[in-house]
Amino acid sequence: MNLAPIRTAVLAATALSLAVAAYVLASPGFFIIDEVIYFIGADALARDGTFSIQNGIETFPSEDMHAWLLVEGPLGLTPQYPIGTSLLVWPVMWLLGAKSLIFANILFGLLTSYMTFRLSFYMFRDRGVALAAALLLALGTFWLEYVVGHWPHSISMFFLLCAFSLFLRAMDSEDGLVPALASGAMIGCGIFFRLEAVILLFPFGAILLLDARKPWRLLVGGAVGLLPFVLAMSFANWIRFDDLNPLSYGTSGGLTRFSRYVGMLAGIGGALVLILLCRVLKAKGIDPIKLLFGLAVVAVALLAVMQHALFLRAASGLYDILIDTRGIEDGRAGVRLQDDGTLLFWGLPKKALAQSLPWLGCLVLLAGVRPGPERRYAIYILTVSAAWTLPFVMGSWHGGLGSNMRYFLPVVPLLVILACWLAGDLLRKTRSVTAAHLAGVMALSAGAFLYIDRSTSLSGAYVHQVVSLLCLGATVLACAVAVIGRRAWSAGVAAVALGVSFGFSAYAGLGDLMASQERRVIFEHASEDFRNLPGPSVIYAIPEEVPFAFSEDERFVAMPDAQTGEIDATLIARVCASDFEVLVSRAFQPLFVEQGFALRDIVGNNHHQGVNFKAVDCEA
User: Fold this and answer.
1) What angle do CA 436, 437, 442 make, to 5 degrees?
2) Are the beta carbons of 68 and 255 closer than 8 angstroms?
3) Distance of CA 38 to CAs 41, 74, 82, 283, 298, Å?
4) pTM
5) Residue 181's closest CA among 166, 195, 194, 193?
6) 23 FRET partner, CA 20 to 30 A, in 29, 128, 317, 382?
């Protein structure tokens, strides 16, 4: 009897059941301002059929009314982010409301899990490895936190994973034009949700020029697939920002401007010329690897000597973003060094990529992989991953508030697939450790780390930021011994060390998920209390507290200058001279007092979890 269809049906039913449970249990509260901006963009499109959020800008023109991430354009104020999220969820906004974006993320999360399985099986032809990859993505990374969130990382991940899968098919097929075209289209879809999707163009182009049988045919196919989406983004940005740049945020400023990375990406593009030279050398029978290695060494040496400050910044960014966040220097009040040497980001123990995923230490095993299709795929994954991280490393941008490096999410499924394949190879080399043993070690170690966190004198931040590095170091050491020793016992030790690191990632991922949900619950209650505030009013608050004010005609949201904290006194005077009140949340009350504004209590003011409001005393 063929049990495969039954197993598939059981797995599908289990996944759907978990997805429904996640949707029901997930808090609709907002974690950060970015999520609110995505939501109000979709809400405006569903409610008014427009991309604009007026927010009182015509009545009270002021930079404070831009709420940091709204850009003034021909239509009025519009979200700085791409329009893909709004277009995707507006049909269900009337039914699902604040959970519309969560619904979309869960749906695409299921698709991403399936694509992880399919891509893993395509590369390594092992159903066990493919299933392990799908499970590890869910249980051994920080991915789930974003599946039950509002920002569209989960959606963007799916399209970029599809782009990589189609890219491989284009590389492997005799013709490759159709999958190349489809891969370009998937990148275009990704850009509609997150602009950084454009980064994939550079490693894809490099691999094509260096390794494809028909590079120009595939490049043209990818460009043709991408072009309609670039034109559509240009048109959308022209309508919203009066700017034909498809990668525009509508302003050269802002907290998360993409333009800060354009110079870096242009440099990567210039490297394609060098790769083309290597292609020519390869065609003439000359090995280009030595040339590339030599030039890389010379480039690093020249950078270290001639651009010492730039070299140190790049090295520091590499270490801080990929290895250990405790060295990050951020002067904002929310980033605080603790007595035990840990660093909290607005109360959260933010982790570098390897601190979240210490099992990345198993990549050392690649040194022992023999030439073949599997190694070629591994090189492709490493190339894409390195190219993806480079702009963020050079910019030393850690992503602000959060428990992990969310910008690296698109490459997490690829790294998961690679880790599971390497783990499977370890298990084949030892008879003492099986897949069941590895899963048991993962579960036991996750429980042990949770116990250390909750029941010992060590802080959770110390476990997240320091103990994680011990796991990483142990995994690197054990895997290095396995490569050098080539013995069954050393492979077994490496497998156990890898299982412990898998367990740490499961513990850390669960902790990140719970921390984000706790914050969401706080702001869920705060947004409910907002409805009890008097109106009409201009409300100085972080948008997570008052997300629904953006959809009301007589309640507007304002924020002080993001860099200086300065409050627009002219705006306050104009509001005081009208029928509106100025309400101030606890987050901004110290700024108002420092800048000479008198505050008074609001009659009948409700508050929850310390989030409350006062009014500016216009008579003082």
Assistant:
1) 100
2) yes
3) 5, 19, 9, 49, 44
4) 0.92
5) 166
6) 128
